[in-house]
Design goal:
The complex is a heterodimer of chains A (171) and B (456).
Chain A (H helix, E strand, L loop, with lengths): L1 H22 L13 E2 L4 E3 L4 E11 L10 E10 L12 E6 L2 E2 L1 E2 L19 E10 L6 E6 L4 E4 L2 E4 L3 E5 L3
Parallel strand pairs in A: 1-12
Antiparallel strand pairs in A: 2-3, 3-4, 4-8, 5-6, 5-9, 7-8, 9-12, 10-11
Chain B lengths: L4 E2 L2 H9 L3 H9 L3 H19 L8 H15 L1 H13 L3 H12 L1 H13 L4 E2 L3 E2 L10 H20 L2 H45 L3 H16 L6 H10 L7 H21 L3 H15 L4 H11 L1 H20 L21 H25 L2 E2 L2 H8 L5 H48 L6 H14 L1
Helix pairs in contact in B: 2-5, 2-14, 3-4, 3-13, 3-14, 5-6, 5-8, 6-9, 8-9, 10-12, 10-15, 12-13, 12-14, 12-15, 12-16, 13-14, 14-15, 15-16
Classes of the chains: A mainly beta (171), B mainly alpha (456).
Chain lengths: 171, 456
């Protein structure tokens, strides 16, 4: 009796699964696709909610006795396009590389480093956030801004999330 | 030539007395090696499939296969926490909770973010927290659980019994986790940063010496997790110079040396299952995944560790003087040869380095010999089930012990019955004395005094 019941249950399950499979429409997955590259002063949407605009980049020499030690200061605005309060951490990550190597971060010479951990409400813009990087040479620097998208659907196919790159020349 | 022996009985007791740091590390890793071997083989399979072009690195198949091989290594601190807790006599699941705290995504992401933007993390705005990569780390969690094992008895003493069930886990987790992220965890990182500084300095003076040192000391760098501190040096070299001579050649020499040691042990070992364990560990070491060789063979048997240090050092020296350059960052083993393929002389020197590492360590290990681990240890390592004969033996022993226990219990029952009878008799005598029906005797009075004294 138990076996008959089990078989009947199995049959019902199989029929329901096949019914769902045949009748449903094929689902197409879509997502926001961030640009691969962008430029200074451009409104860059790095994921579905976060917008970054690089306002200014400048190079400083903090120690006049060591002219080779240069710091790149990047100033940018961030718009939190979500409906929740957020901070930069967990929303996006801005890093820099030069000559293929990641640049060492340095916050000693920025105006207000606490903007990096200042929460803002959904829809608000936080202006004048600064980050500093220790330059290795006078060659071009590539800024990478990674939003919080782990997967991006291109033509319905999942691909790994990627950062938006902004090239900056050092004078 | 030293004989290959199996430890048992008295020898095991003698071995216990000679407990040292290597035994401790061996004891911690023994229960989890089965996981490391499985994950190591899966990682090797993943690398082979990628190198042969069977799967793409951006495909979902790669993500699943990579997860199968890498998850066990990523969460290694949790496994280590449980086995360390068993060795140090701490509470295993509290230890696992401590490790889970260190690997909690919000915490690892915060560490990663702070490290990327140069933010100095603090606790309560005052206590500085150093960035540590806890994923796949070894030494930090062992130190932290050792600390936990020391504070647990103290907490048990201090906390009142009534509040123990609540306060004991709360305080253990709070104190251990905080001590872990503030002091104990960063110790390995500070040591690693110092090491990276020294290695970079030596590389400027005598570049040939660095692969020699890394080739010889790699097993210790892996144990302490200090090799992670050399990754930025190697990455920077690859980015700026287009090649690395600091980390990759030395680590390749060391992994192949461990493969040589594993195969030598596989040939000389007597137990079939241990032979098979050593051979599979040797194979994964060949492909750069050397944890099972290191923790399951080299460290517990000691002599293979010494021989692989020598073999790795010799091969590293060759890598140094021939100036081998790794042109890509990959798992340092046989498959990483792709990164040495140009120019041809570089590839030939890399191949010679591999041959030296393998042959030298194989011969040294074969000649030096080793003490084969006991049957129980091998069973634990390999996950081999107990045979019917052994099962029968265990059952017989258990039956003998049960019979002895029953006899002892019966004897105890008789003795307690006698005590009860004597107590009743004494009580009756005292009652008689109190009521004046019986006159007290000298012996009984003395006994009574003793009893009173005892009660007092």
């Amino acid at each position: 009796m138990k076996r008959v019941c089990a078989l009947l249950l199995l049959l019902v399950c199989l029929l329901s699964v096949s019914a769902c499979g045949k009748g449903g429409e094929e689902k197409v997955f879509t997502s926001f696709i961030p640009p691969k590259t962008a430029s200074v002063h451009e409104d860059i949407q790095v994921d579905e909610t976060n917008h970054i605009t690089i306002v200014e980049t400048k190079t400083i020499t903090p120690n006049p006795d060591k002219p080779d030690e240069k710091i790149l200061i990047v100033t940018y605005d961030w718009t939190n396009g979500s409906d929740k309060q957020k901070v930069t951490h967990g929303s996006f990550l801005l890093t820099a590389k030069q000559d293929g190597a990641a640049l060492q971060p340095n916050l000693k010479h920025v105006d207000d480093k606490f903007l990096l951990v200042k929460p803002i409400q959904g829809g608000e813009t936080l202006e004048g956030i600064q980050q500093g990087f220790e330059l290795l040479s006078d060659n071009e620097v590539t800024l990478s801004i990674k939003g919080n998208m782990q997967v991006v659907f291109v033509d319905g196919v999942p691909k790994g999330g990627y950062p938006v790159e902004v090239s900056i020349s050092i004078n | 030539m030293t004989k290959t022996e199996t430890l048992s009985g008295k020898e095991m007791l003698v071995e216990k007395k000679k407990f040292n740091v290597f035994d401790m590390i061996g004891g911690i890793f023994k229960p989890i090696l089965i996981v490391i071997v499985g994950a190591g083989v899966l990682q090797t399979l993943r690398d082979i499939l990628v190198q042969t072009g069977a799967i793409s690195k951006v495909s979902s198949s790669y993500i699943f296969l990579d997860g199968l091989g890498s998850a066990a290594f990523y969460f290694l601190p949790i496994f280590l926490a449980i086995s360390s807790a068993n060795v140090f006599k701490a509470t295993p699941y509290l230890a696992a909770a401590v490790a889970a705290f260190l690997l909690f995504p919000n915490i690892t992401n915060l560490f990663s973010w702070a490290n990327s933007v140069g933010w100095n993390l603090t606790l309560f705005g005052k206590i500085p927290i150093t960035y540590v990569k806890y994923e796949s780390s070894v030494l930090p969690i062992i130190l932290i659980i050792f600390f936990q094992s020391k504070i647990e008895p103290l907490l048990k003493k201090v906390i009142p019994d009534l509040l123990r069930s609540i306060l004991f886990p709360v305080l253990t987790l709070f104190i251990t986790c905080l001590a872990g992220i503030i002091i104990l965890g960063p110790l390995g990182t500070w040591a690693g940063d110092g090491l990276a500084f020294v290695i970079t300095w030596i590389n400027g003076l005598a570049p040939w010496l660095v692969p020699t040192l890394v080739g010889a000391a790699s097993p210790f760098l892996v144990i302490t997790g200090s090799h992670y501190s050399l990754f930025p040096v190697a990455t920077q070299n690859l980015a700026q110079l287009g090649y690395d001579t600091v980390l990759m050649p030395g680590m390749m020499a060391s992994n192949i040396a461990l493969a040589g040691a594993s195969f030598a042990v596989a040939i000389r070992a007597k137990q079939k299952s241990y032979k098979s364990y050593c051979a599979s560990s040797g194979l994964t070491s060949f492909f750069g995944i050397s944890q099972s060789s290191l923790y399951g063979i080299a460290i517990p048997l000691k002599k293979p560790l010494i021989t692989s240090v020598i073999g790795g050092g010799i091969a590293g020296f060759y890598a140094g003087i021939s100036g081998i350059q790794a042109r890509s960052f990959s798992t340092p083993g046989l498959l990483s040869l792709v990164g040495y393929s140009s120019p041809t002389s570089n590839l030939i020197n890399a191949l010679i380095c591999i041959v030296i590492a393998f042959v030298a360590t194989f011969i040294l290990t074969f000649l030096a010999g080793f003490q084969e681990p006991s049957r129980e240890t091998v069973r634990e390592l390999t996950g081999e089930p107990i045979s019917e004969e052994e099962k029968q033996e265990i059952i017989e022993k258990a039956e003998e012990l049960e019979a002895a226990a029953r006899e002892a219990e019966e004897a105890l029952g008789d003795a307690s019955m006698e005590v009860t009878r004597a107590t009743i008799a004494r009580g009756a005598t005292r009652l008689g004395e109190t009521t004046g029906l019986v006159s007290p005797t000298e012996d009984e009075t003395g006994e009574e005094d003793d009893q009173k004294g005892g009660d007092a």
